[in-house]
Design brief:
By secondary structure, this protein is of the alpha/beta class. The chain has 29 helices and 13 strands. It is elongated.
């Protein structure tokens, strides 16, 4: 059944994308109507079946917002019908029904598509591949049309010939198509950035003012959000000024030129709203497409002197539907205008809060429709249904059945939270948990880190500070903490790296559990109490939680464990989980949703001591440690808490102290990961070996970036990058690897690594930094 629905959705996507061309060729005008009915039928079926693919949980915030939007829409329809009854300008059923459908089709189809297309990852992949092919063809043709007339031009603008039609009868529909494709790609913006930029170029080359305004807004947003930044109020003001500046002359021409259709429609709509106050003249009376037909030509055009305006005359009213706000104002009055604005706000609020990851796509759709509403029917336009379908498809971008979903289905569910007694310790003086903090050049952050650990609601803990040869006074700060609290131990050791410091802490620990914290991070107060209570309740030897990534005091990302609330028992389930640590599969856009840090867990100390689990002296030692600890464990639990706060700013740059030892550490990691993958059980060994190839490819790319941004000499950088490209581990990983399934930017990087294009690799690093 799901494949049938996918096929229907794919057909709807293509019919709506090429609707204007199909209409011009065949004369069939009911494409958007049929697609809306199909979407509504699918959504109602999902809701009635309470299908998890298509049902918002009852009483949830998005469900309530969606219901509010539908109630406002119903009130809007009631106001319009009341206008028909009171003023009797139009009382025929057919034109009124057509106009009501125009009013309701976008919000209804947007909600329906959002429900129907949830989790349809396969459909999203097909549509995305088609969209990329279309963008490629359109970009080539658009650039070619700049150089020579290839029959795609309409009216030249700004001295250019590229206001082209592609296979559609008007550039407006190309703009709608580009906007929809951008909406599709935004959920995976980092992977699709090049395609988004190409699509913006195609959109700009239509040379429509609304397209240029949208492109400017989108480009500013991409710049303002680069690197995970959050746009500021200043950005919003700059963006609004830029869009207004681009459209000012056109807006003045449209709305302040005597005798121009849009200007006359707007003036007349205000007069009609005043004369018919407060409810308007009713449906099918002004500004809509149905009123342009000779059969239903509105009497109001005669009454308000519009029948003699060019483009609004009877039988040649081509510009009647080139308006939006004037239609709403005249037909539903000021009450209807307020209701429509409130309905749109609630609709897009529902879409945003139902899946926050898709908020950029939702806002992109809203911005394009608002910009286009200044010069066309926008929300009433048949092409708006295409945007609604793209919104639904965007929701499927990060969905689909993956490894985490499969493990959740098989894993046991943890019991509800309760006040479980904490585990008995070996003696009266033994703590529940020993927290090991390696300290190296962390004087600026150490005090805050220590305070957050000693401030835990689980008071029965010991803190082991391992001074790893710091020379910035961190050791003295650690000694001061020990003098202030008997729960603090300090170990001073020569510098040996984080792995060595953590291993010293494990040896010195006396608690039932061992945990790790980096000296520049901090914890929320209840983190260890929740982890240890879960361990006591479930008997798990390892309990993982999530984390928050904090940049300059602001939480940028909240990363939860994919298996939160579940527990894995037995070698088979745990081996399946370990696969994620070895890297992503070729078909994945990014690594599995598994947190690699050892700091988000408590480990049974007896497990570490009896099985001799220790940190290895390699890059990303946490990944190796987690793999080895999980391999020895009999039970692992996951909780939804995100109490670990990972500081993303202020740390010394990894490139500032770059040396040959960094490369050696990466190479040791590659060899160790390959060996560990080979030692996995037969059931998962082949998958782990495939994943570790992606791991080596991805980390080689990271290593090239580190080298290119390091302060070493230009010639030395080239030699080091050449060494990375020539490494045996990377060459073996690349051999026969399906690189074409990687994201576009990663595929290009793969090719350059494979061909040892050192200069091009350095240029790509520079370009990536600029973006």
């Amino acid at each position: 059944m799901h494949r049938v629905i996918d096929a229907i959705c794919l057909i709807c996507f293509n019919l709506l994308l090429f609707e204007s061309g199909i209409q011009a060729a065949t004369g069939f005008t009911l494409i958007d109507e049929l697609c809306v009915l199909a979407l509504v039928a699918g959504a109602l079926g999902g809701v009635l079946r309470r299908d998890p693919r298509g049902w918002w949980a009852a009483h949830s915030r998005p469900c309530n917002a969606a219901i509010a939007a539908l109630v406002l829409l119903a009130l809007l329809v009631a106001v319009g019908l009341l206008g028909n009854l009171v003023h009797a300008v139009q009382l025929q059923f057919v034109p009124i029904a057509i106009d009501i459908f125009a009013f309701v089709k976008f919000p209804v189809s947007a909600l329906s598509a959002w429900i129907v297309m949830k989790d349809r990852k396969r459909l999203y992949g097909l549509v995305l591949a088609e969209a990329k092919l279309l963008v490629s063809i359109m970009l080539i043709l658009a650039i070619a049309n700049l150089c020579m007339d290839i029959g795609m031009g309409t009216d030249p603008r700004y001295g250019l010939r590229a206001s082209f039609k592609f296979v559609l009868p008007h550039p407006t529909f190309v703009s709608f198509g580009c906007a929809g494709i951008i909406i599709l790609m935004l959920p995976e913006r980092r992977d699709n950035l090049g395609w988004i930029v190409a699509c913006l170029v195609v959109c700009a080359l239509t040379l429509r003012t609304k397209s240029l305004g949208f492109v400017a807004l989108a480009a500013l947003w991409l710049f303002a959000t680069r690197g995970g930044r959050t746009p500021s109020l200043g950005f919003a003001l700059v963006a609004l000024i830029a869009v207004f500046a681009i459209g000012f002359s056109q807006l003045r021409y449209y709305f302040f030129t005597d005798g121009f259709a849009r200007a006359e429609l707007m003036r007349a709509s205000v007069r009609i709203a005043a004369d018919c106050s407060p409810i308007g003249s009713g449906f099918a009376t002004f500004g809509s497409n149905v009123t342009a037909s000779p059969q239903y030509y509105s009497p109001l055009y005669y009454a308000y002197g519009l029948s003699t305006v060019w483009g609004l005359e009877p039988g040649a009213a081509d510009f009647v539907s080139d308006s939006f706000w004037s239609t709403v104002i005249a037909q539903t009055g000021w009450i209807g205008l307020l209701l429509y604005i409130a309905m749109v706000a609630m609709l897009f609020r529902a879409l945003c809060i139902s899946d926050a990851r898709q908020a950029p796509s939702v806002l992109c759709c809203l911005c394009y429709l608002l910009i286009s509403s200044t010069s066309e029917s926008a929300f009433f336009n048949p092409a708006s249904i295409f945007l609604a379908v793209c919104l639904g498809l965007a929701r499927a971008a990060n969905a689909g059945v993956d490894t985490a979903d499969e493990m959740r289905r098989d894993a046991a569910v943890l019991p509800p939270d309760r006040d479980e007694a904490l585990p008995d310790t070996e003696g009266a003086a033994a703590p529940v948990v020993s927290v090991v903090v390696p300290v190296y050049q962390a004087g600026s952050y150490l005090r805050a880190c220590v305070d957050s650990i000693l401030g835990q609601t689980l008071g029965d803990l010991e803190l082991i500070l391992v001074d790893d040869g710091s020379c910035d006074g961190s050791g003295a700060i650690a000694d001061g903490c020990a003098r202030m609290s008997p729960r603090v131990k300090v170990i001073h050791a020569p510098h040996g790296g984080a792995a060595s410091a953590r291993n010293r802490g494990i040896e010195a620990a006396s608690g039932r559990y061992v945990a790790f914290v980096d000296a520049d991070d901090w914890l929320e107060p209840q983190m260890y109490e929740r982890l240890c209570r879960c361990a006591a309740a479930s008997g798990a030897q390892i309990v993982y939680c999530g984390m928050k990534e904090v940049h300059r005091g602001e939480v940028r990302f909240v990363r939860r464990q994919a298996l939160s609330g579940h527990m894995l028992r037995g070698a088979g389930e745990i081996a399946r989980f370990r696969c994620g640590y070895f890297g992503a599969l070729p078909c994945k856009k990014k690594e599995e949703d598994i947190l690699s840090s050892a700091c988000t867990a408590v480990f049974d100390r007896s497990l570490l001591m009896e099985r001799d689990v220790r940190f290895r002296d390699v890059r990303s030692e946490d990944i190796v440690f987690n793999i080895e600890a999980c391999k020895e464990a009999d039970a692992i639990a996951f909780i939804g808490d995100t109490g670990y706060c990972y500081r993303k700013d202020g740390q010394p740059s990894a490139t500032s102290s770059f040396d040959d030892g960094v490369i050696a550490s990466f190479f040791r990691l590659f060899e160790l990961m390959r060996q560990m993958a080979s030692d996995e059980p037969e059931e998962t060994r082949d998958e782990c070996l495939l994943r570790v190839r992606r791991f080596i490819i991805d980390y080689s790319r990271v290593l090239v970036v580190l080298i290119a941004r390091s302060p070493v000499a230009w010639d030395k950088k080239g030699e080091l990058i050449e060494a990375v490209c020539s490494s045996g581990a990377l060459r073996a990983a690349q051999e026969g690897y399906p690189f074409w399934r990687l994201p576009a930017a990663q595929a290009v990087f793969f090719i350059c690594l494979r061909a040892r294009m050192v200069l091009l690799l350095r240029a790509l690093v520079k370009l990536r930094g600029a973006l």
